Amino acid sequence: MSEQTKTKLCKYCKSEIPADAKVCPNCKKRQRPGGCLIAVIVVVVLVILLAAAGSGSTQDAAPQATAEPSQPAASSPSETDAASQEAQTETTYGVGDTAESDGVEVTLVSAEENAGADYITPADGSVFVALEFEIVNNSQQDISVSSLASFEAYCDDYSVSQSLTGATLYDDKGTLDGSVAAGKRLSGAIVYEVPADWQQLEVAFAPSVWVDRSVTFTVTNEG
After folding, report:
1. H-helix segments, 103-145
2. How far is residue 84's CA from residue 29's CA, in Å, rounded to a whole number?
3. For residues 83-103, average pLDDT
4. Residue closest to 176 by CA, chosen among 114, 104, 96, 92
5. What share of the chain is helix, strand, coil (3-state, %, to 5)?
6. Beta strand pairing status for 16-18 and 92-93?
7. pLDDT beyond 70 at 46
8. Which of 24, 66, 98, 116 is a good FRET partner for 203, with 20 to 30 A between their CA atoms?
């Protein structure tokens, strides 16, 4: 009995051909690999793709799990305002003290009470108080000083204005009015008429009418 020859069908023309034939003798077309091999290849490719996708997901998730460094807490508006107000707190100066504002130094040289002389006298129940200042301009620009605009005075918390009548008693000292060039000085006296029983005279000086920051000098009646 002869051994039966193994055959298979051509995948294209369906002719019976030898099982080990790679090309069909009838249609001359190359035979594709078996279905099992294709299935194995597909499975291997899917496993590789799934492994790659899983690795990418792990890498993407890792940064999200990392905790961000804690940031310093921002100051609340109330805390900022309080710090700003504290920084702007004015220091009160007295006779002989020198204060500085925006590069301008001002010194209260002396404070003198005066009852007047001859025909130059204050109103009944009042006296003159003369304050002598020296101003040094250490800024980089000229400044203008005005005895009316640069100074603001309060006697025992009541607003007072300079006395032009009393100022005539101190003509030799000059007035605090004029332009002061950078690096130059100005000295003079400013006189206020206040009640004879005054207790405290406060005078604020600002180097410019456009500057809110000022320095305050306080004179106390020790009589």
Report:
1. none
2. 92
3. 72
4. 104
5. 20, 35, 45
6. unpaired
7. yes
8. 116
- pLDDT above 90 covers what percent of the chain? 40
Q: Taking all residues of the chain, what is their mean pLDDT, rounded to a whole number?
A: 79
Question: What pairs with residue 162 in β-bridges?
Answer: 192
Is residue 180 within 8 A of residue 145, CB to CB? The reply is: yes
Burial (CB count <10 Å: 0-12, 13-18, 19+), residue 166: buried
85, containing H or E segment:
helix 77-87
Q: What integer pLDDT is reported at residue 88 of this predicted model?
A: 44
pLDDT above 70 coverage of the chain, percent: 73
Region 113-142: what's the mean pLDDT? 92
- Span 13-36, average pLDDT: 72
| Sequence-ordered list of residues with C-beta below 8 angstroms from that of 217, at least 6 positions apart, any chain | 92, 93, 94, 95, 97, 99, 108, 131, 202, 203, 204, 205
pTM for the structure as a whole = 0.59
DSSP 3-state of 77: helix
Nearest of 185, 190, 186 to residue 219 by alpha carbon: 190
Helix (H) or strand (E) holding 137: strand 126-137
Please give the span between the terminal C-alpha atoms of the chain, in angstroms, as a whole number.
153
- Pair type for strands 178-180 and 185-195: unpaired
pLDDT tens digits, residue range 161-179?
Answer: 999 998 999 989 999 999 9
Per-residue burial over 126-147, b = 16 or more CB atoms within 10 Å of its CB, e = otherwise? bbbbbbbbebbbebeeebebeb
* H-type alpha helices, 103-184: 164-167
